[in-house]
Amino acid sequence: MSGALGAALAAMVCAMPKTKSGAPEERERLHRALATAEAAGRRLQALVDEDTAAFDAVMAAFRLPKATDEEKAARKQAIAAANGRATEVPLQTAESCLQVLEAAADAAACGNPNATSDARTAAAVALAGLLGALENVRINLRADDPGSGPLLARADALLADGRARAAAAGLPL
Fold first, then answer.
1. SS3 of 30, please?
2. If you classify domain 2-168 with CATH, what class do you get?
3. Tens digits of residue pLDDT in 42-65
């Protein structure tokens, strides 16, 4: 949800008629950033529901019976599949938050100077969304899963990119 809030704030700044210097290039950049923020905001809102469904699937998998060897195997497979989805959804959330951070950086660079604090706040809450999503990724990965290494590397790369974009928006990190 915080990523969607960041998207709304970035879109607000991008949609303001006044730019930093009034240059047409700034308006074009803000127009592109507005489209990015609005699309990312819609996606982030949808991801809230997808994350809820993924969590519900994990909980349902843990409630499966485990009295027989067959039930245990089916339960283990269901948990692994549900955890996979519960990891992928927050990765998608983090990626969408990166888009918001980029739009917020453009808003801070080119937008109305009186709304710089709004652009930076957009970046701050988008970064919070990214951090929260990556925490969900880490908690949903099992240390004994051989496939967790590439996903953790992806999460680390998203974090580094997010911090760089937040700094570009003017956040003191």
1. helix
2. mainly alpha
3. 999 999 999 999 999 999 999 999
